[in-house]
Design brief:
The protein is an alpha/beta fold and 254 residues long. Helices cover 48% and strands 16% of the residues. The chain has helices at residues 26-41, 64-67, 72-91, 107-114, 141-149, 151-160, 166-171, 182-194, 198-208, 216-230, 234-244; strands spanning 2-7, 10-15, 47-52, 57-59, 96-100, 103-105, 117-120, 125-127, 164-165, 177-178. The strands form two sheets. The protein has a six-stranded mixed beta sheet with strand order 1-2-3-5-7-10, sandwiched between helices. Strands 4-6-8-9 form a four-stranded mixed beta sheet. The structure holds acetoacetyl-coenzyme A. Acetoacetyl-coenzyme A is lined by residues 20-21, 23, 60-65, 82, 103, 105-107, 110, 129-130, 133, 137-139, 141. Acetoacetyl-coenzyme A binds at residues 20-21, 23, 60-65, 82, 103, 105-107, 110, 129-130, 133, 137-139, 141.
Length: 254
C-alpha cells in the first residue's frame, strides 16, 4: 500500500510493502501512480516526498516474482506503468524529493532518479542491478541516470549492476546529500520549498527539465519569455517589494 501523510503543504508518500522490501507489484505501483496524480492536482500540496516504509528499503525494485511470469506485451505494459509514475514525479508542477532510506534498486533507483532532489540515509544502497536478471532498467534508468550522473558513470553502473553506498552516491552526484534520519532532511527542504512562490517553482522546474534536451537557443528563449511573463504575478510583486521594504515575502501562488 501507499501511505499518504499531509503536513501543511507537504505530502509524504510512503511505499509500504515491507515483506518484499517495498518492491513494487502491480497493485502497489498502480496505487502509487494514482496517489501521485492526486498530489500533482492538489494545489494545496506544494512539495512531495517519496520514501519507503521501515528501515531496510526505499524500494527494492520492480517485483521480480511477478516479472518472472511476463510475456512481451504484459512486460511492455509494466514498463509503461513505471514510466507513468516516473513522469509524474518528473513533471508534476511542484518539487518532488526522494528520501532514500535503504535499498533503492532497479525500479526503486529509477523512481528516485525521476524526483527533482534525492537524499540518502547513510546506510542507503542504490543501483541498477537489472543486468544480473538478464533484463535492462525499464522505468527510465537508461536515460535519467546519465542525466543525473553523466554518461560515463551511468554506463558503468547499468552495465555492471554495481550497487553503491550513500557516500559514493553523494560523490557521483546520484544523491544531493546524506543525512540521518533522511526523512528529516527531506521534510526540512520540502518545508523550505513550500514557503517559496509555487509559480516560480513550477516554471523553474518546467524550464530546468528542458536543460539537457532540445535546442539550447529555443530553451533560452522560453526562459526569457517566462521571466517576463512572471512580472504580472502577485508573487513577483510581493517578492520584489518585500526585499525593498526589508521584510519577509509571503507568497500566495497568484
Ligand atoms: N522483487 C520481489 N521480491 C523482492 C524483491 C524484488 N525486487 N527484493 C526483495 N524481495 C523480497 C525477497 O524475495 C524476500 O522475500 P521472501 O522472504 O518471501 O523470499 C524479501 O523481499 C526479503 O529479501 P531478501 O531475503 O533477499 O533480503 P536480503 O537482505 O538478503 O537482500 C537485497 C536484500 C539485496 C535487496 C535482495 O532482496 C535483492 O537482491 N533484491 C532484488 C533487487 C533487484 O534486483 N531489484 C531490481 C529489480 S528489476 C527492476 O526493478 C526492473 C525495472 O527496471 C523496472
Amino acid at each position: 500500500m501507499i501511505g499518504v501523510d499531509r503536513d501543511a503543504a507537504v505530502a509524504v508518500l510512503t511505499v509500504d510493502r515491507q515483506e518484499a522490501l517495498n518492491a513494487l507489484d502491480v497493485a502497489t505501483l498502480t496505487e502509487l501512480r494514482d496517489r501521485l496524480h492526486d498530489v500533482a492536482a492538489d494545489e494545496e500540496v506544494r512539495a512531495v516526498i517519496l520514501t519507503g516504509a521501515g528501515e531496510k528499503a526505499f524500494v527494492a525494485g520492480a517485483d521480480i516474482k511477478y516479472m518472472s511470469g511476463l510475456g512481451v506485451e504484459r512486460a511492455k505494459a509494466w514498463g509503461a506503468l513505471g514510466h507513468e509514475a516516473g513522469r509524474l514525479l518528473e513533471t508534476m508542477p511542484k518539487p518532488t524529493i526522494a528520501a532514500v532510506n535503504g535499498f533503492a534498486l532497479g525500479g526503486g533507483c529509477e523512481l528516485a532518479l525521476a524526483c527533482d532532489i534525492r537524499y540518502a540515509a547513510s546506510g542507503a544502497k542504490l543501483g541498477q542491478p537489472e543486468v544480473n536478471l538478464g533484463i535492462i532498467p525499464g522505468w527510465g534508468g537508461t536515460q535519467r541516470l546519465a542525466r543525473v550522473c553523466g554518461l560515463g558513470v551511468a554506463k558503468e553502473l547499468i552495465f555492471t549492476g554495481r550497487i553503491v553506498g550513500a557516500e559514493e552516491a553523494l560523490r557521483i552526484g546520484l544523491v544531493n546529500a546524506v543525512h540521518d534520519p533522511v526523512l528529516d532532511k527531506a521534510r526540512e527542504t520540502a518545508s523550505l520549498l513550500a514557503s517559496k512562490s509555487p509559480i516560480s517553482l513550477r516554471i523553474m522546474k518546467e524550464l530546468a527539465n528542458r536543460a539537457l534536451g532540445g535546442d539550447h537557443a529555443t530553451n533560452l528563449e522560453a526562459e526569457g519569455e517566462s521571466f517576463g511573463e512572471l512580472f504580472s504575478s502577485d508573487d513577483a510583486k510581493e517578492g520584489l517589494t518585500a526585499f525593498v521594504e526589508k521584510r519577509e515575502a509571503v507568497f500566495r501562488g497568484r
